[in-house]
Amino acid sequence: MIRIPGLLITTFAAVLLQGTASTWAHENDPKGKPEPPVYGEIIYGNQNGIAGGGWGGSQENTIFCAQIPINQLGGSGNGSDCWGYVSPSAREYAIITMESAITFVEVTDPFQPVVVYTHGRGNTGSLWGDVKTSGDHAYLVGEGGGSIRSYDMSQIDSGIVTYEGESSADGNSATHNIASIPGTDIIVRCGGSGQGLRFYSTSGNPASPQFIGAWSDRYVHDADIIVYPQNGPDSTYRGRIIGFLNDGNNGGSVNTGLSIVDFGTPANPNPAGNLLSRVTWPQAGYSHQCWHTEDLRWLVSNDETALNSTFQMVDIEDLDNASLGFTQSLPFSANNHNNYIHEGLVYAANYTTGVRILERNGNFLNEIAHFDTYPANDSAGYNGVWSVYPFFPSGTIIASDFQSGLLIFKLDIAPIGFSFPEGLPDTVPSPGADLLVEISEDGAEVEVATMTYAFASDGVVETVDGLPSSDPGVWSFRLPASPDCPDSVSFEFSATTTVGEVYNDSSGPYSVSVADGEILLVDFDGSSEAGWVFSVAGDDAATGIWELGLPQCNGRGDPCTDGSGDSNSPCFLTEINPGDSNSDVDGGQTTMLSPVFSGGEPGSGLSLSYDRWYSNDFGASPGQDSMQVYISNDAGGSWLLVEDVNENANVWVTVDFVIEDLIAPTEQMRMRFVASDLGDGSVVEAGIDNLRVFGIECDDSIPGDFNGDGLVNGTDIGLLLVAWGTDDPAFDLDGSGDVGGGDLGVILANWSF
């Protein structure tokens, strides 16, 4: 268990498909040769998401509605982009592009989609086609050349979409993406043919947008452009057109990053723009696409060719000083593509892993649902989902897929949620414990809350109903005394609504140890270096060798205190040189071995903990190195990786785990810590403190045995009655704060027969 606020970050190496990209792609675009489309019949789901054979990809908290293959959409070749449109009568339509065509599909009933209109792209067709809407018009661009194709949707409810032709403004060069600025009559071509942004007005004639200017500082792959709202956090730019641009030089792959630009006002746009700030990130491959949160405090950006399944969180609260927040990853190697944000959720189209749906909490993301459009695999590469559109008022979600065409689904998030206001315990005492559970209600009312539990020592499954507490929505559950100590207990929660629907806590079951305390068995607190080894064969670092000493607080990533917060207490650090602030790890790796120690007997449940410090935030190439922690049960003859530390917490982090959860415990346990500077120059600072082993302590006394004779009987009741009505903690068995009927109940539950 790692105790630090935030998300455990896992970064995957980029994998590029080696092949000849289409000449119609932007420079370095790797999508040139995806697998061919899969033709077939439309698959219809039902209200339970399983009819018509169902969808073959994995799903969580989503309902499959329908899938329309490319051939049923009237196109050919692979699918690409999608967007949505809602008519004045509130009917909903999906728009999807393919290599050869663009198709409009009514999805008002997502289980019975209807293809309304298909139009061929002719000699401007290509794999890359992007579509957006403005008013009652759809606008199509692509890498196959041509300018902007216009489609009139004013009669779409009658089954009529009219192709109005192609704008001749600003020539017919290729375009990679198109953006529409909500609340204005401005649309913007992005990229293609080495371009930045090209702005057009649709006010005079929506069928023929007129060119009004360009931004040419860098190539722009995609853009999120808005009129900054009057309640936006940066008051300086309220009412102005602000663009969040995924851009770079040489087709976007050099100096790739994200620019924030002021483009004037809707009444007086300034396409030449004014750069407000720019953000880049370590190990960037290709800055691809981003979208803003509704509160305009964060951007969620992605990188298409590196940092797979990873999101760059960009702080935009101050537009003049945007900065990179946490970089967060999903546990997959699939490449990122497009992501959008709606009602607090991030909808990410991540190629082979399909659509991932993440709940945002400030700077942190947590996946709550997914819909895999590409069941074949989850590997890196350029197949599967291209884009997702989550903005329909009905909650219908559409996704466009290279192979599968148009997919339609809905979220199926339970109206009941479970959380723990006091957290979940790591251990519970053998006499039992009370657990508090907050059960949230969204359109449902909980009538009964239940806990199911089982102790490992007897395996008997029991249930107990919770009691509503004085706090609304919070229920209290009593976990009874365990039949043995040490022991472990597993438990899970469910709630039954007033209409009889049962919802389970999907995060459970939970498992904790039963113990009445801890015994410190091993304590390496930095007071001595006896038994520690500070170099091994194969180490080649020139500086930054492990040693024991006082923290120096030099301001370049090294700690100011030891792991216990004491600035005057020694700990193990990578080179301690008071006269040199540049004494970090350089030129290779440095290894430290702990003394050999006992891990106890199998089944003893001993736990190990250590405090670690790691920083790789400074220098020319920050964020490229890591620290490895290993454990051995044969004094170092063989090693098992415990963790590969690559987050730059810049605080002491406590890591703890039960030894036998990782490795068989022996009398020959040992730890190894390896810090390295292996890439381009960067500052690497590491520290270790408080390596400890804890044993379990159990209290053999019986609750209610006040006189200590090993029995709970009438004598103990007599002692209880003497203390009745007081707050004497010796007799307050249920922890209520006063001695009364609850304590009498505990005595009766433990009565000796």
Which descriptors apply to this entry?
3% helix, 753 residues, single chain, disordered N terminus, mainly beta, 3 helices
Structural overview:
Helix content is 3%, strand content 43%. Strands 1, 42, 43, 44, 46, 49 and 51 form a seven-stranded antiparallel β-sheet that branches. Strands 33, 35, 36, 39, 40 and 41 form a six-stranded mixed β-sheet that branches. The protein has a five-stranded antiparallel β-sheet with strand order 2-4-31-30-29, with no helix packed on it. A hairpin with a 3-residue loop joins strand 30 and strand 31. With 753 residues, the chain is mostly beta strands.
Mean pLDDT: 89
CA distance, first residue to last residue: 42 Å
> How many extended strands?
51
Radius of gyration over C-alpha positions, nearest whole angstrom: 31 Å
What structural class is derived from the secondary structure elements? mainly beta
The gross shape turns out to be globular
If helices are DSSP runs of H or I spanning 4 or more residues, what is the number of helices? 3
> What portion of the residues fall into strands of 2 or more residues?
35-45%
Q: Sheet with the most strands?
A: 7 strands, antiparallel
